[in-house]
Amino acid sequence: SALMRVAKSASTLGIAIEGGANTRQPLPRIVTIQRGGSAHNSGQLKVGQVILEVNGVSLRGKEHREAARLIAEAFKTKEKDYIDFLITELNVAL
Amino acid sequence: VREKRLTLPPSEITML
């Protein structure tokens, strides 16, 4: 796994995720990267990667909406001008 | 484990 720091360089984060606890994809997986969004601009995130943590908060055991809410709040907060993602290429429930 | 995995529903997709 790897820590990826995504600067809030655009008005949107620009990723779509699927998955969460109690689904076939137990941890959120990136399914789309929108061109022009902060994630795309960072060049760090890729489709297919699985998000293990957001700003040090584990997504393990979190259902889809809760995981999405955590990521949305990490993007919204003015405390930081970046989001740290712990990412793995391995699509498994670690 | 595999059988259980297959019975789990697909996830919704959220754009962030």
What does it look like?
- The complex is a heterodimer of chains A (94) and B (16).
- Chain A has 94 residues and is α+β, with helices and mostly antiparallel strands.
- Helix content of chain A is 19%, strand content 31%.
- In chain A, strands 1-6-4-5 form a four-stranded antiparallel β-sheet. In chain A, strands 2-3 form a two-stranded antiparallel ribbon.
- The relative contact order of chain A is 0.30.
- The mean pLDDT of chain A is 95.
- With 16 residues, chain B is an alpha+beta fold.
Summary, kept brief:
Helices cover 19% and strands 31% of the residues of chain A.
Q: Determine the N-to-C terminus distance of chain A.
A: 10 Å
Query: What number is the mean pLDDT of chain A?
Result: 95
Shape of chain B: rod-shaped
| Overall geometry of chain A | globular
List keywords for this structure.
heterodimer; A: 94 residues; alpha+beta; four-stranded antiparallel sheet; two-stranded antiparallel sheet; globular; B: 16 residues; rod-shaped
Topology:
The complex is a heterodimer of chains A (94) and B (16).
Chain A lengths: L1 E6 L7 E4 L10 E5 L4 H5 L7 E5 L2 E2 L5 H13 L5 E7 L6
Antiparallel strand pairs in A: 1-6, 2-3, 4-5, 4-6
Chain B lengths: L1 H6 L5 E3 L1
